[in-house]
Task: inverse folding
């Protein structure tokens, strides 16, 4: 059976099921609007470790163990782990895998990693290569700041377009059989570079990538925004979300009222001083693996598009004056086990 | 994506990049001014206690640097600087913060390649170009004076 729809979209007829999911977040996130939805709050960012990197590693490890337990499985039953993070060489995930002892395929998609790992996990499960796959990612405000920006105590000013890296991790177990939510379609993103160089305006760099993938998906499947309860982008933030509305309008998709963004949902920007919203791999991962999947389990959301966006620059490329390339991977997620089309 | 022009997009993006500059200016002016008032207070007090103008200047710089370092260590400096911006960065307090904050941050990488090497990661360029420009100014001054023997 051909599983490719149109030019860019993948179809998963066996409907891989999200059987367990778990989210772990930091203190700021646990005080935000979604505070009641997360599974675990680590409080102060160290999580009992002596470095931010070790803390982040423990985040992804805890989220993974939580998801495995919720799926009613044991580590050894997970046949493949798809994951990555923002740190150089993906150390947070690599080091977490030392103790997890699960066959591991590391991914780097910056903040799009949750969608990328789910896409790869779905391909693996739907293709019959494994019965249970784990998809996870994480980010930590403090480890990201020191790698990409300034030391924490440095007295700089953040512009209004800057986003706040989420301290958090989300993980889920995809299985061949289960009660859902189900992953039914996926569209891998292309690298889109809109010529943005401002590291403090990631939303602007990523919005065109989100638009590109979304349009490709609609074209391939013949669907439109009104077919979905929610179109959820990863971490465009307030600025990127507004820009995405404009880009979609330019391409013939008028006024979408079901467009949401994890970066806008996770913080109360006014009260929490997070400027344009949340960002980081952990942003979409923690929101999807708590609020969204829980709402899908109780059927408040029946069919959504999840579209995590990533900015693919590095501190080196930015110093050399390079623009910011971005990517967005899309997944169609359904709550009901309806018959495949 | 069919209808997309990078130029047009960047123009739209720039409309979203407006900083609240009036508020920022008021904060910077007030906090920067207050730091200078504090400096003047220390300078005057030191002179009143019998120090020479030069020594009193040293005491002022040292005190402000110490206070900046202390407040950075206590995690208070960045909270003020977040609002005050140039008001805290431009005086000597900003320089002290730029050295103390990476020293704290990179402690985990050890005292040699962490604290020692990274301490000047932000302030380093200021030192390099500060010294370079003072050499150039000195040379110009020397040549304008007719290149007399030193």
Result:
């Amino acid at each position: 059976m051909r599983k490719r729809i149109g030019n860019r979209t993948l179809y998963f007829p066996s409907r891989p099921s999200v059987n367990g999911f778990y989210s772990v977040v930091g203190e700021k996130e646990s005080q935000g609007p979604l505070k009641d939805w997360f599974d675990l709050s680590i409080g102060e960012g160290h999580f009992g470790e002596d470095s931010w990197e070790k803390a982040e590693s423990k985040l992804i490890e805890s989220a993974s163990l939580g998801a495995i337990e919720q799926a009613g499985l044991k580590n050894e039953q997970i046949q493949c782990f798809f994951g990555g993070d923002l740190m150089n060489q993906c150390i947070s995930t690599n080091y977490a895998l030392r103790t997890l002892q699960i066959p591991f395929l590391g991914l780097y998609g910056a903040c799009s990693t949750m969608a990328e790992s789910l896409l790869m996990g779905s391909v693996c499960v739907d293709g019959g290569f494994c019965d249970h796959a784990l998809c996870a990612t994480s980010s930590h405000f403090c480890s990201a700041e020191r790698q990409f920006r300034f030391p924490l105590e440095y007295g700089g000013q953040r512009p209004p377009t800057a986003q706040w890296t989420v301290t958090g991790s989300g993980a889920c177990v995809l299985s061949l059989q289960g009660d859902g939510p189900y992953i039914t379609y996926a569209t891998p993103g292309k690298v889109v570079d809109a010529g943005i160089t401002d590291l403090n305006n990631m939303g602007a760099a990523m919005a065109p990538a989100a638009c590109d993938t979304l349009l490709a998906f609609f074209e391939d499947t013949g669907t439109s925004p009104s077919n979905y309860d929610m179109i959820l982008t990863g971490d465009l933030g307030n600025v990127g979300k507004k820009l995405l509305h404009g880009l979609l309008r330019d391409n013939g998709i008028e006024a979408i009222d079901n467009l949401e963004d994890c970066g806008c949902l996770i913080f109360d920007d006014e009260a929490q001083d997070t400027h344009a919203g949340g960002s980081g791999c952990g942003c979409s991962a923690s929101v999807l693996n708590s609020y969204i999947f829980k709402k899908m389990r109780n059927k408040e959301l029946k069919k959504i598009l999840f579209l995590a966006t990533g900015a693919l620059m590095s501190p080196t490329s930015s110093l050399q004056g390079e623009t910011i390339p971005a990517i967005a991977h899309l997944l169609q997620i359904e709550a009901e086990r309806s018959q495949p089309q | 994506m069919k209808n997309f022009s990078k130029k047009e997009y960047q123009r739209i993006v720039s409309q979203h990049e407006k900083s609240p500059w009036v508020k920022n200016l008021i904060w910077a002016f007030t906090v920067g001014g207050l730091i200078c008032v504090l400096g003047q207070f220390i300078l005057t007090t030191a002179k009143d206690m019998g120090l020479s103008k030069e020594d009193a200047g040293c005491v002022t710089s040292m005190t402000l640097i110490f206070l900046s370092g202390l407040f950075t260590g206590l995690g208070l400096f960045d909270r003020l600087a977040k609002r005050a911006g140039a008001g805290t960065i431009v005086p000597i307090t900003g320089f002290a913060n730029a050295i103390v904050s990476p020293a704290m941050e990179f402690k985990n990488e050890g005292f040699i390649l962490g604290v020692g090497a990274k301490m000047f990661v932000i302030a380093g360029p200021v030192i390099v170009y500060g010294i370079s420009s003072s050499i150039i100014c000195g040379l110009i001054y020397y040549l304008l004076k007719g290149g007399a023997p030193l």
